[in-house]
Specification:
Elements: H1 3-17, H2 34-51, H3 100-112, H4 116-129, H5 133-146, H6 150-163, H7 167-179, H8 183-193, H9 201-217, H10 221-234, H11 239-251, H12 255-268, H13 273-285, H14 289-302, H15 307-320, H16 324-336, H17 341-353, H18 357-370, H19 375-388
Helix pairs in contact: 3-4, 4-5, 5-6, 6-7, 7-8, 8-9, 9-10, 10-11, 11-12, 11-13, 12-13, 13-14, 14-15, 15-16, 16-17, 17-18, 17-19, 18-19
Length: 389
C-alpha cells in the first residue's frame, strides 16, 4: 500500500465512523510550481462540480509528518504530482519545458479582459525561457501599447523584428507611428514590408496605399504619386485608389487632373461618396458653388456621416442662398447626432432665413440650455425675438 493510499484509507475509515464518506483525496506536493498547483486545483473543482453530489462539502487540508501519528513513513522526495488532465493542458510539457500554446492562450484571455500587466508577465516568462522570443516581444509590445507606454511598445516591436520579420509586426508598428504622426518612419517601415515573401496582392495594395497616404501627409507629392500609381496598377476595383490620387492633385491645386481621377472613380463605382465629395471640392475651388452643392448633396445622400462634406455644403448654401437641400440633410444628420452644437446653430440660421422663427427660437434655446455662454446663439435669439414681438 502506498503512503497516499494508506492515508486515504485511514481518513475514509475515520470519516465513516462519524457518518461521512470520502469522495476524493488528491495529494498535492508543496514543491510543485505554483502555477501547476493552481491548474490542479481548478481541475479538481471542475470535476467535483460536474459530479453534482448533493450535500457535498469541500475542504483544503494541510498535513505534515509527525512521529507515530498514522505510522506512515513519508519520503523526503516523493514523486511529482501533475494535473489529472493531459499534461499538454497544463503549464509544462512532459519534458518540463513550458507549454507555449497553453500559456499564450491564457495570456490572450487576460489581454482580452484588460489584464495587460498579468498578460505581460506571462509573455516575459516566455521571453526569459528563450522560447518564441519574437512572439513574446511582439505581445509585450501590444500590452505596453494598450497601457499607453508607447516608447516601450515601439522598442518591443523593433526588437521582435530583429528575431523574425513578420508582416503583423510591421503593420502594428506602422500604425503606432502613424498615430504618433511619425509618417516618415511609418512609410520607411512599410517599404521594407513590401519585400516580404508572405504578402499577397491584396496586402501589397493595402501597403502601397498606406505608404502613399504617409507621403501625402508629409507633403511629398512625387513619392505619394509614385506609390498611388503602383497601387492603381494592382487594384481590381480601383475607385479607392483613384480617389487617393484625386485628393493628392486637389491638395496641390491641380484641379483638372483631380477632377479626372474623381470622375474615373465615379465611373468605376457610382456609389463612391468620397469621389462625389471630391468633385464637389473641385467645383468649389473653381468657385462653381451651385455645382459643388449638387455633388456634396449627392455624396451626403449616400453617406450622411461625413462632417467635412456637411460643413462644405453649408458654406455652399450660404454662398448660393439655396438652403432647401442642405436644410433637409442637416436635419437628418442632427437626428442621428443631436449633440453637435455648431451644426445645430447652422440649423437655427437656416430656420431664421426661411422665416421659421418659432422653430429657430426652440433650436437656439436648446443650444443655450447645453451651452449658456454660446455668444452667436444669444445674438441670433435676440434677432428672433425682435421678429416675433
Amino acid at each position: 500500500m502506498t503512503d497516499n493510499n494508506a492515508f486515504e484509507k485511514l481518513l475514509d475509515q475515520s470519516l465513516a465512523d462519524n457518518g461521512y464518506h470520502l469522495v476524493r483525496l488528491h495529494p498535492l506536493h508543496s514543491k510543485i510550481d505554483t502555477l501547476v498547483k493552481i491548474k490542479t486545483l481548478e481541475d479538481i473543482m471542475h470535476d467535483l462540480d460536474t459530479q453534482n453530489i448533493k450535500e457535498m462539502q469541500s475542504y483544503v487540508i494541510y498535513i505534515k509528518p509527525q512521529k507515530k501519528v498514522y505510522e506512515i513513513k513519508i519520503p523526503q522526495h516523493p514523486p511529482q504530482i501533475y494535473p489529472a488532465k493531459s499534461i499538454l493542458d497544463g503549464i509544462y510539457l512532459s519534458n518540463r519545458k513550458l507549454n507555449i500554446p497553453y500559456l499564450l492562450k491564457n495570456a490572450s484571455l487576460l489581454y482580452d479582459t484588460g489584464e495587460y500587466g498579468l498578460a505581460r508577465n506571462i509573455y516575459k516568462t516566455l521571453l526569459k525561457s528563450g522560447e518564441a522570443s519574437d512572439a513574446a516581444l511582439f505581445l509585450i509590445g501590444k500590452c505596453n501599447e494598450a497601457e499607453g507606454h508607447l516608447a516601450e511598445a515601439i522598442k518591443n516591436y523593433e526588437d521582435s523584428l530583429l528575431y523574425n520579420q513578420k508582416l503583423e509586426t510591421y503593420q502594428e508598428l506602422s500604425k503606432l507611428f502613424i498615430n504618433l504622426k511619425k509618417h516618415q518612419e511609418a512609410a520607411e517601415l512599410l517599404v521594407k514590408a513590401l519585400k516580404l515573401k508572405e504578402i499577397n496582392q491584396s496586402i501589397e495594395l493595402e501597403l502601397l496605399c498606406t505608404i502613399g497616404n504617409c507621403y501625402l501627409r508629409l507633403e511629398n507629392f512625387e513619392k505619394s504619386e509614385h506609390y498611388y500609381k503602383k497601387a492603381l496598377r494592382l487594384s481590381i476595383r480601383p475607385d479607392e485608389v483613384l480617389c487617393n490620387l484625386g485628393v493628392l492633385y486637389l491638395n496641390y491645386k491641380k484641379i483638372g487632373e483631380s477632377k479626372n481621377y474623381f470622375n474615373n472613380a465615379c465611373l468605376t463605382n457610382t456609389k463612391n461618396s468620397v469621389a462625389l465629395s471630391g468633385l464637389g471640392c473641385c467645383y468649389f475651388e473653381e468657385k462653381n458653388y451651385a455645382q459643388a452643392l449638387d455633388y456634396y448633396a449627392k455624396s451626403l445622400t449616400l453617406n450622411l456621416n461625413n462632417i467635412y462634406t456637411l460643413q462644405k455644403i453649408i458654406r455652399c448654401a450660404f454662398l448660393t442662398q439655396n438652403y432647401t437641400r442642405t436644410l433637409e440633410l442637416l436635419k437628418n444628420y442632427l437626428q442621428l447626432y443631436p449633440a453637435h452644437l455648431d451644426l445645430t446653430y447652422s440649423l437655427a440660421i437656416f430656420e431664421f432665413h426661411f422665416g421659421k422663427f418659432s422653430d429657430a427660437k426652440v433650436t437656439l434655446e436648446n443650444i443655450l440650455t447645453v451651452s449658456p455662454d454660446h455668444y452667436e446663439a444669444k445674438e441670433l435669439l435676440k434677432k428672433v425675438q425682435q421678429k416675433t414681438t
